[in-house]
Amino acid sequence: MSYAYPLDSDWTKDEIIAVVELYAAVEQAYEQGIQAKQFKDKYAAFKRVASSISLEKTYDRAFEKLTHYSIYACRKKAQDLTDQDFLKMR
């Protein structure tokens, strides 16, 4: 699907890439599934950009409003999985 992802114009190119890659990983977790390690790595890169809880929540809410997919729900499920497990949201 094509969305106007929630981004910050002050971010660097690398920061934008990290955030967009997490958004894509969340979409993949809901649509096809993704390796837990791959998701965790994308989430870790996202957290380097949105380092505060309030920023994370802000972007999660905006992303969920557009897509109906939750970064938080994926993160919660992924933290209970080993790196070799497959993350598939329902």
Number of helices: 4
- Percent of residues in beta strands? under 5%
Integer-rounded radius of gyration: 12 Å
- Runs in which pLDDT lies below 50 for 5 or more consecutive residues are none
Distance between the termini: 17 Å
**What percentage of residues falls in helices of 4 or more residues?**
55-70%
Biggest sheet character: 2 strands, antiparallel
Mean of residue pLDDT?
Answer: 96
Structural class: mainly alpha
What order do the helices and strands follow? HEHHHE
Total E-strand runs: 2
Shape: globular
Largest beta sheet: strand ordering: 1-2
How would you describe this structure to a colleague?
This protein is mainly α and 90 residues long. The chain contains 4 helices and 2 strands, in the order H-E-H-H-H-E. Strands 1-2 form a two-stranded antiparallel ribbon. Helix 1 packs antiparallel against helix 2 and helix 2 crosses helix 4. The longest helix has 19 residues, at 13-31. The protein is globular.
